[in-house]
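Exercise: predict the structure of this protein bound to 8-OXO-2'-deoxyguanosine-5'-triphosphate.
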Amino acid sequence: MSFTTVVAAPLTVAFDVARALGRPWPFPLEEVESVRPVSDLYAAGPGRGRRRLVHARRFTATADGTVVDEQVDWDTGLPRLLAGLLDRAVLRRRVRRSMRRHLDGYAAVAELRARDVVQVVGAAIVRGDAAGREVLVAQRGSGPLAGLWEFPGGKVEPGEDHEAALVRECTEELGVTVVPREFLGEVPLDGAVAGGAPGTSTLRVWAAGLVAGEPVAHEHRDLRWVGAAGLGTLDWIAADRPLLPAVRDLLTRP
Ligand SMILES: Nc1nc2c([nH]c(=O)n2[C@H]2C[C@H](O)[C@@H](COP(=O)(O)OP(=O)(O)OP(=O)(O)O)O2)c(=O)[nH]1
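Solution:
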């Protein structure tokens, strides 16, 4: 059986809250495989009478938050005909009811928890057309990451919409007006952001268009427009690297 929930929280928060709440089954499950913050797989059994339950979750970042896709499969260990009857008469309904109650609580807790974690947004500002596109990259001027390249952006303020934060940061840092066009992806940040625990914040990046102004480095050491070939040659903040294929795709798509 499949379930899909949209949680108004970034990946790490959605994943960590899901782990803390566990699953709605009245017996313990064992971890089979977990990859924070993208997936986990737990199973119970085979137990008495070869009963078995497998519960897999996949967490995907989207512009609106995290989509959690869950798959619950079970085997009662009964002969096929009997098992089919039991499934139809009782089990499917019971599983659906347990999951629905669990997921409603989960979504609410994750949304609340997200308010306590400072998140970072970044803009992949693109210029040009199919004949040749470039993205604006910025070199940090101070702090522990000084000298490394990043996407212009910064921390989302409490209660602020993520895309609004992106527009505000680009105005403050570059003196330009941008419009977010497409969500590109999200990665966990290893370091502490604004005093938060390391690994709880994420960087969420949007492709953006320039609608007014020419970028000026108000806070960065340097700014550069680079094409797809130049992207990989820069000394990026390590956390940003998994986002580069999506940016490259943006620059090379027809
Ligand atoms: N803007 C940006 N920050 C990134 C990227 N990758 C990455 O790890 N970070 C980290 C560095 C910082 O710890 C944090 C962003 O903080 P910031 O100092 O730029 O934020 P801000 O503009 O709101 O700064 P401030 O007003 O609090 O000084 O995210 C990236 O590509 N862009």
